[in-house]
Write a structure and sequence with these properties.
This protein has 18 helices and 35 strands. The protein is α/β, with parallel strands linked by helices. The structure holds ligand TNX. The site of ligand TNX has 9 residues, from loops.
C-alpha cells in the first residue's frame, strides 16, 4: 500500500516537474529574467490594440512610440497611443505602460510584466525598466518583429507570461575600437541597438589611439585633419603595409546623433580618449605635447609606442583639458574613460622636464609620474561633474581618489581596486576579448590570437569569490571588448561580437544561479533567427564539427572521428571533397580510411545545415597511426594532437594556433617511428611552418635515418635550410628520397636554429620550430 502511494507521489512530482520544465522551454528571453512563468495562450495584436500610457508622461509616450514604430516597421499592426489619467481603468485589448505600482526593490532598471490573453501590463519605477520590459515583449513576439521587410502572414501575438525582472549588475557594457578601424555612424547605431536589445546599458566608444584620432575637436582641428588619417595599414601579421591612406572621424554633430540614439535606448555612451600612452595620432598632429617634440607619424602597424604625452610640460595638460572640455559637453555619461594602459616610461626617464616634475612633486619613479598624470586629469574631470575610468594600469603608482577601474589583464587589478573601495568593471582578456578566436582558427577569419569560445564567455563569473560582500559591491559589472586591429568591416565586427555579446549580456543581467548552458543555447537558437532577420552577421562557430583522427581500438592504428557539442543535431559528411547535404552519410562512430581523402562535415538540424562546413585532408601513408617514440619533447603550449601527432594524417595551415602544429621551443624534434615490419621506403617527408614574426623558424637541418632494429640507425639523408633574414610566413615539406630502401624503423631529427638572430625583434630568445606530419611512402 505504502509503496503504491510512494510511487504515485513520485509520478506526480515527476509529472509536475516535467510540466514546469516544459513550460519554461517555451520562453526564449535572453537575458534570462529573474522570475518568469509562462501562462496559457497569448495576446493578439491588431489595428485596434492600443498602448495606454499613464498620465501625460513624455518619457512613457516616447517609449510607446518606440515600441509601436518597431512593430509597424516590421509590418505589424499600427498601435494607437492613448494618454490615460486613471490608473485603474480596465485593460481591454490594450498594452498598459505604467510608472506606478512596481516593486521598489526592482530599482530603476527592473520591471514587472504581465501578458494575458486579455491584455498587457508593464510596470516599472523608471523609463529604463519600461524599456527593458519592451525588449522582453519583443522577444515574446514572433522573430519577424526584427525584420524590416514587411513579412506577410505573421500572426502578431505576444506569449502570455508573468515576469519580475531586475539586473544583477548596474554596468553592462560593450566596447568598440573605432581607431584601428573606423566604423560608420549607421553601424555604430546598429551596434548600440543590438546592445540595448540584450539589456546592456553602456557603449564604450574607443575614439583615439596610435592609429587614428576619430572625434572632431573644434579647438584643435589638426587632430582630425592630420590625426585621423594614416598612410597605410599593416597587412595581416607581417611587417608590410598596404600603403593606402586610411581615415575617418566623427563630427561633433554625428557624435550628438549617436548619443541621442543611444539615450533613446537607455544606453550611455562612454567615450575613451587615450592618455598618456596610445596617443601617437594626437602627437602626430601636435608633436609639442610629446617629450621628444619631434615630428611623428601615425602608426600604420599595431603595437605600443614609446612616444607618449609629456607630463613634464604644463601645456600638455592644458591641451588635454581643452579636448576634454569639448568631450564633456558632448557626452552626458558620468564616466569618461582616459585609457591609461600600456604607457612605456622610457621617454619620461630621459626627459628633463619630466624629471623636473618628479622632483617638484616628490615622485619616486615614473610609475608615480603616470599616477600624477591620471590624478591631475581626474581632478579636472571631477570639477566638471565627471568620474574618471581607466584600464587597470592606473593602479600603478596609486589610484586617483574616485576613479573606476576596468580590469583587463585578468582579475587582479579589479580585485585590488575593489579592495581599495573603487568601482570596477570586469573585462578580463580570457573571457571578454571578442577579438580572440571563437572557433577552430583554420576556419575562422584571421584574429589577433587567443581563444574565447561562446561557452567560456557564458561561464564567466565577474565577481571574484575572494572579495568580502562589502568589497564585492564594487564589482559593478562586466564588459566585452572589440579591438579592431584585424577587424576591418562592420560585418566582421558583428561576426566577432555575436553571439558572444549575448552570452555576456546574460552574465551581466541574470543571477549566477540561473545560468544554464543547455538552456541558454536552446534559447539562443531562436535568437539566431531574429539576428538573421535583423541582418546581423553572427558567427556560427559554436556549431562547428571537429574532424579528427583518434587512436583505434586497442591503440592500433587511427580512426576518423567527427565531433560536435550538439547531441540533438546530426553530423553528415563526405569523403570526396563535395559539400555535405542533408542526404550525405550520417556520422555514427569513428571509422577507418584506406586512402588519403578530403573529409567534409557539417551539422544538420532537421535537414538544415546549421554550421560552416569543416574540411580536413586526412593523409593515409605507411606511417599513419604507427607507434612513435619521442626522443625530445614538444612544448606544452603547442602540443598538436599529442604524442601521435606526427603520424595522425593531419596537416596544418598557416593558422599556427589551430592545434595541428606541434611546437618545439628552443629544442629539436626527434622522433622514431616503428613501421611494424621491414618495408620498402621510397620517400620520407616532414612538414614544417615558418612564421618569423611569431618567432617560428624552419629547422636549419633535417636528418632522416633508417634502422632494422630500432637501435642502430643509418643516416639516409640530410636537408639543410639556411636561415635567411626576412619576416615571411611559409609552409614547407622537407622530402628525402630513399629509392626503395628497406627498413622497419625511421627516425627524423629536425634541428632548431637555437636563438632568434640579431636582426630579429626577439634576438637571443629561443626559436620555435613547428611540425605537422612525418609521411612515409
Ligand atoms: C591591449 S586592452 C590593448 C589594446 C589592444 C588589445 C588587443 C588594452 C587596454 N590595450 O590597445 O587593441 O590589447 O587585444
Amino acid at each position: 500500500m505504502r509503496s503504491t502511494f510512494q510511487l504515485l507521489l513520485f509520478i506526480s512530482i515527476l509529472l509536475s516537474s516535467v510540466f514546469v520544465f516544459g513550460r519554461n522551454k517555451t520562453l526564449n528571453i535572453i537575458p534570462q529574467p529573474t522570475e518568469q512563468k509562462a501562462l496559457r495562450g497569448s495576446f493578439p495584436l491588431n489595428n485596434s490594440t492600443s498602448i495606454i500610457i499613464q498620465g501625460s508622461n513624455k518619457e512613457l509616450h516616447d517609449l510607446a512610440v518606440f515600441f509601436s514604430e518597431k512593430i509597424k516597421l516590421a509590418g505589424g499592426p499600427a498601435l494607437q497611443i492613448i494618454n490615460e489619467k486613471s490608473e485603474t481603468k480596465k485593460i481591454r485589448n490594450a498594452i498598459y505602460f505604467s510608472l506606478t505600482g512596481a516593486d521598489p526593490a526592482l530599482g530603476k532598471e527592473g520591471y514587472e510584466l504581465e501578458v494575458t490573453k486579455k491584455g498587457i501590463l508593464l510596470k516599472a519605477n523608471a523609463g529604463n525598466g519600461i524599456f527593458y520590459g519592451i525588449q522582453s515583449l519583443f522577444q515574446l513576439m514572433p522573430p519577424e518583429v526584427e525584420s524590416t521587410s514587411n513579412p506577410s502572414a505573421i500572426i502578431w501575438q505576444v506569449q502570455a507570461v508573468r515576469i519580475k525582472d531586475t539586473p544583477r549588475y548596474s554596468y553592462r557594457g560593450m566596447h568598440l575600437d573605432c581607431s584601428r578601424h573606423f566604423f560608420p555612424v549607421d553601424f555604430v547605431k546598429k551596434y548600440i541597438d543590438l546592445l540595448s536589445m540584450y539589456k546592456m546599458n553602456t557603449f564604450h566608444w574607443h575614439l583615439t589611439d596610435d592609429q587614428g584620432w576619430r572625434i572632431e575637436i573644434k579647438k584643435y582641428p589638426k587632430l582630425t585633419t592630420i590625426g585621423a588619417i594614416r598612410k597605410g595599414t599593416q597587412l595581416a601579421k607581417t611587417d608590410e603595409t598596404d600603403n593606402k591612406p586610411y581615415g575617418g572621424f566623427y563630427s561633433q554633430d554625428q557624435v550628438k546623433e549617436v548619443v541621442a540614439y543611444a539615450a533613446q535606448r537607455f544606453v550611455r555612451v562612454m567615450p575613451e580618449i587615450e592618455m598618456p600612452g596610445h596617443s601617437i595620432a594626437a602627437l602626430a598632429a601636435y608633436p609639442k605635447y610629446s617629450c621628444r617634440q619631434v615630428p611623428l607619424e601615425i602608426r600604420t602597424n599595431w603595437g605600443v609606442s614609446d612616444d607618449v604625452f609629456c607630463p613634464g610640460n604644463d601645456s600638455t595638460f592644458i591641451f588635454i583639458q581643452d579636448i576634454l572640455t569639448e568631450v564633456i559637453a558632448l557626452f552626458p555619461s558620468e564616466y569618461i574613460h582616459v585609457g591609461g594602459d600600456e604607457c612605456p616610461k622610457s621617454q619620461w626617464a630621459k626627459c628633463p622636464k619630466c624629471q623636473q616634475r618628479m622632483k617638484t612633486e616628490g615622485l619616486k619613479n615614473e610609475l608615480e609620474l603616470q599616477s600624477y598624470f591620471i590624478k591631475r586629469i581626474e581632478k579636472f574631470l571631477n570639477e566638471h561633474g565627471k568620474k574618471l575610468v581607466g584600464w587597470d594600469e592606473i593602479l600603478e603608482g596609486g589610484l586617483p581618489a574616485q576613479a573606476a577601474v576596468m580590469s583587463w589583464r585578468g582579475f587582479e587589478g579589479g580585485i585590488e581596486a575593489a579592495k581599495q573601495g573603487h568601482d570596477v568593471m570586469m573585462t578580463p582578456g580570457h573571457y571578454c576579448y571578442f577579438d580572440h578566436y571563437q572557433g577552430d582558427p583554420s576556419y575562422e577569419p584571421l584574429a589577433i590570437g587567443g581563444y574565447t569560445n561562446l561557452k567560456e564567455v557564458y561561464s564567466f563569473e565577474p565577481t571574484p569569490a575572494e572579495l568580502s560582500p562589502e568589497q564585492a559591491k564594487h564589482i559593478i559589472g562586466a564588459q566585452g571588448n572589440l579591438w579592431t586591429e584585424y577587424i576591418e568591416t562592420p560585418e566582421h565586427a558583428e561576426y566577432m561580437a555575436y553571439p558572444r555579446a549575448i552570452a555576456l549580456a546574460e552574465v551581466n543581467w541574470s543571477t549566477a544561479k540561473s545560468r544554464d548552458w543547455e538552456d541558454f543555447t536552446r534559447r539562443l537558437k531562436s535568437h539566431f533567427n531574429r539576428l538573421s532577420l535583423k541582418k546581423v552577421n553572427y558567427a556560427k562557430s559554436l556549431y562547428e564539427v571537429a574532424i579528427n583522427t583518434i587512436p583505434g581500438k586497442d591503440n592500433k592504428g587511427m580512426m576518423i572521428s567527427l565531433n560536435s557539442d550538439w547531441k540533438d543535431m546530426a553530423i553528415r559528411y563526405t569523403l570526396d571533397n563535395s559539400d555535405p547535404t542533408e542526404k550525405s552519410l550520417l556520422f555514427k562512430e569513428a571509422f577507418s580510411l584506406s586512402k588519403t581523402s578530403i573529409a567534409k562535415a557539417g551539422l544538420f538540424d532537421n535537414e538544415q545545415l546549421k554550421s560552416r562546413i569543416s574540411t580536413k585532408t586526412i593523409l593515409i601513408h605507411k606511417a599513419f597511426g604507427k607507434p612513435v617514440t619521442l626522443l625530445q619533447k614538444y612544448s606544452p603550449k603547442y602540443v598538436g594532437h599529442g604524442d601521435p601527432s606526427m603520424v595522425d594524417g593531419q596537416k596544418g595551415t598557416a593558422a599556427f594556433r589551430a592545434g595541428e602544429w606541434q611546437g618545439y621551443e628552443g629544442n629539436d624534434l626527434e622522433q622514431v617511428i616503428d613501421l611494424g615490419e621491414p618495408i620498402l621506403i621510397n620517400k620520407i617527408s616532414a612538414g614544417f611552418l615558418k612564421n618569423i614574426y611569431s618567432w617560428i623558424f624552419f629547422p636549419v637541418k633535417v636528418e632522416f635515418y633508417i634502422s632494422q632494429d630500432g637501435k642502430t640507425f643509418e643516416l639516409a639523408g640530410t636537408i639543410e635550410e639556411p636561415l635567411v633574414k626576412g619576416k615571411g610566413v611559409d609552409l614547407k615539406t622537407f622530402v628525402q628520397d630513399l629509392q626503395g630502401k628497406s627498413a622497419r624503423y625511421i627516425k627524423v631529427h629536425a634541428v632548431n636554429p637555437g636563438v632568434c638572430p640579431a636582426w630579429h625583434e626577439a634576438a637571443g630568445q629561443p626559436c620555435w620550430i613547428f611540425a605537422d606530419e612525418i609521411e612515409v611512402e
